[in-house]
Specification:
alpha/beta, five-stranded parallel beta sheet, 16 strands, globular
Length: 460
């Protein structure tokens, strides 16, 4: 009989006041007993609605059934047939809006903790899984630009089909946004590195410090014998508001702030990474990146952290879990508030001037707009500001690759097979959609790998 408890089996967490001052993971992995208890909540529905909510099609009821039986290696193997990064996805996927949103148990209670169970399998197998079986080489070469989630997913699927794959990464460390964007307390770097090592075990070559579009062009990759190219370069160009004071010392893009914190290890005492140690800091934006930046600033020593968001809490796009954790840690939310100027003194930030906003009636899409309330300006005293209002793709590849079509936001235009306007050139992830989720980027990488395989086989 399934366990009919209405709520998910809770995972242990650090106390808010403790975790707000360290970069260790907030949540712990399930114990064996907790995992089996949660697995027993799964009804193993005949139509498997949860699978339809997963962008990479993880066989969810099947792997959960193996946990229930106590056969974690078999559960892990089932996950790995479609998901090359289970330890990552189990931690950072927005399951609540994807697989878990389809779970029948959510009708009368909470859905099954699919993400927690996926993490449990990956962590359980961290030092137990054997080296993957390398397929016979098929004699064909593919280049993957970018080692974020879409690039890693594409490279993994192609390598398993026997392709010789080279991943070109602009930074000195592979992993893309998984390494530079998501903080240690949500996604430990050792976890990401373990997943990348699994890719190397499939003989995927990862070339770091390789800025494609500068060191080599896409056309030169073809000249070197690569038969197809996948562009998974993400969206790393930060957006700003264009208000006065954005050039003051102490103003960061969230991209820069998180890169200094994560990739350059500002969170570690034994690294002398240049980053301001702020007394009070304002983070502008309401997405997951804003939560990551605000919670990182708190852990780096800020006494006061504000999140400034121009809409209400109901419109905030960040995961509910991240908002809940941020509030628990003492971060103050300024809803229906919009910056109009960053105030400076001697060239550095001394405050931020804001205006109160009010919601307007919903438009045809159902989304409510906002408008300023006249005469509602006020100031917040801060010595740092982080802009977390979105990113766009870096223009380097599109400006150095003739015939590569992009839209007005600078995103690559692709068809249903992730094919760009150039033959043999595919793209996916944030470079196509703009900033989105890890799992959607992985799904795009998988789709592109399938299309690349069919394209190359079609030429033989």
């Amino acid at each position: 009989m399934p366990n009919m408890q209405l709520t998910k089996t809770p995972a242990a967490e650090q106390e808010p006041k403790v975790r707000a001052r360290n970069f260790e993971e907030v949540s712990s992995c399930y114990t064996d007993a907790e995992a089996i208890n949660e697995a027993n909540r799964c009804l193993n529905c005949k139509n498997k609605p949860c699978v339809s909510g997963c962008p990479v099609g993880v066989r969810i009821p099947e792997f959960i059934a193996k946990i229930r039986e106590g056969d974690v290696p078999a559960a892990y193997d089932i996950i790995k047939t479609t998901n090359g990064l289970p330890a990552v996805c189990g931690r950072v996927c927005p399951q609540e809006s994807q697989c878990e949103s389809k779970c029948v148990r959510g009708i009368k209670g909470e859905p099954v903790g699919i993400g927690r169970l996926e993490r449990y399998c990956a962590d359980y197998m961290a030092d137990k899984s054997e080296a993957p079986v390398k397929p016979e080489p098929n004699g064909h070469k593919v280049a993957v630009i970018g080692s974020g989630p879409s690039g890693l997913s594409c490279a993994s699927d192609l390598a398993k089909l026997g392709y010789s794959v080279t991943v070109f990464e602009a930074f000195h460390t592979a992993g893309g946004v998984l390494m530079y964007g998501i903080p240690e307390f949500r996604l430990p770097k050792a976890t990401v590195q373990r997943e990348i090592n699994g890719l190397r075990a499939l003989d995927v070559e990862i070339a770091t410090d390789m800025v494609i579009g500068k060191i080599l062009s896409v056309d030169e990759l073809f000249e070197q014998g690569y038969e197809a190219v996948f562009i998974g370069t993400g969206a790393g160009l930060p957006n700003f508001m264009g208000i006065e004071g954005e050039s003051l010392v102490g103003v960061y893009s969230a991209n820069e702030y998180l890169t200094r914190t994560n990739l350059m290890k500002a969170y570690r005492d034994d690294y002398d990474t240049p980053i301001n140690k702020n007394r009070a800091i304002a983070v502008v934006g309401g997405g997951n990146v804003a939560m990551d930046a605000a919670r990182s600033a708190l852990r780096l020593g800020a006494e006061k952290v504000y999140i400034i968001y121009r809409r209400s809490s109901e419109e905030m796009p960040a995961r509910r879990e991240e908002v809940h954790h941020a509030a628990e840690e003492g971060i103050e939310f300024k809803y229906l508030t919009n910056p109009v100027e960053i105030l400076g003194e001697n060239g550095a930030v001394r405050g931020i001037k804001c205006v109160k906003m009010e919601l307007t009636e919903p438009d045809q899409s159902g989304r409510r707009g906002v408008k300023p309330i006249e005469g509602s300006e006020f100031e917040i005293e801060v010595d740092g500001v982080i802009m977390a209002i979105g990113t766009s793709p870096n223009p380097l590849i599109r400006t150095t690759t003739p015939g590569l079509e992009t839209n007005r936001r600078g995103c690559f235009v692709v068809d249903e097979n992730m094919l760009t306007s150039r033959e043999g050139v595919y793209a996916g992830g944030d470079a196509v959609t703009g900033a989105a989720t890890v799992i959607l980027a992985m799904g795009a990488g998988k789709s592109a790998a399938k299309a690349i395989d069919e394209y190359i086989k079609g030429k033989m």
